[in-house]
Amino acid sequence: MVATEEIFESCVRSAGDLAGVFEYNGETGYFYLYATGAAGEARVLDAIHVVSGEVSFTASDIAIEWEQGETRVGLFIRGQLRASFDATNMTKLGETPRKEPQRATPKKRSK
């Protein structure tokens, strides 16, 4: 089954201050480290590009989990870790390069 609609999954750690959030808009998917904060203070702290184009997973294949110490959060797709944030060190793993359009190389002009 191919996901043809949007997917939004999140998991807030027990302190209530940070969340791991996966969002797929039908074309591109990102995993975010999100500061929940008070109204007006909530914001994305960092993002990891996970996928572009059609995907072969659905919302039921997504799990976001904080490890036991709640310093790291991971995005799992079909049980496989695809991306993670370390909230203590503000580091990330799992960036997928975005496909850039191919640009034609200009030809040299003859004199």
TrEMBL record:
<dbReference type="InterPro" id="IPR014449">
    <property type="entry name" value="UCP007050_HI0931"/>
</dbReference>
<protein>
    <submittedName>
        <fullName>DUF2251 domain-containing protein</fullName>
    </submittedName>
</protein>
<dbReference type="Pfam" id="PF10008">
    <property type="entry name" value="DUF2251"/>
</dbReference>
<feature type="region of interest" description="Disordered">
    <location>
        <begin position="88"/>
        <end position="111"/>
    </location>
</feature>
